[in-house]
Design a protein that fits this description.
Blueprint lengths: L1 H9 L7 H8 L3 E5 L4 E3 L7 E7 L1 E8 L2 E9 L3 E2 L2 H6 L5 E5 L3 E7 H8 L2 H27 L2 H11 L1 H6 L2 H8 L3 H10 L2
Antiparallel strand pairs: 1-8, 2-7, 3-6, 3-8, 4-5, 4-7
Helix pairs in contact: 1-2
Length: 189
Amino acid sequence: MIAAKLRRAFDPYFDAPLDVWIAFAGFCEEIRFRKGQVIKSSGAVERHAYFLLKGACGVFLWRENTFACLDIVLENNFFADHMSLITQCASPLETVALEDTVALRISKANVDKLKSSPWGARLFLIGAEESFVEKQQQQIDLLTKTAEQRYLELLEKRPELIQRIAQKHIASYLGVTTQSLSRIRRKLP
């Protein structure tokens, strides 16, 4: 049941009864993407938010003739080009399925409806706060830790990424070249 899965994913942050999640699920539609499929193109306006049920997605920015990976999302997490979704302006971010993916899709209109309810407003605030803290920590890590330290931390905290996501995306997410990541991996026991 989708509502139970939503509840389990958010219980650590937001204690809500199952009927809240049943109502939430009613605003969504299930959608599938093939590995490599572009979900939202660079230069387009984001029209949906997504909750990942199965698979992996990445958020990328075109930079210096290649895409830089800004975020990697696995099951039980929301993803979107949040900046574009909120402002309804085009952005340079591109969202791509990194594996065959099943997600709940929520239209911008339904996001706004959810935000207008007390529990929906609280849910989106908690999500925004968690995302802000995560992104700020990622920026701090890029400026204060070595590539090897960042890789070891990723290996410790999110080992499933290393097992499931292509090395080129992991390297980009860590802010290094694939060659540098290969050297780091060879040095480790």
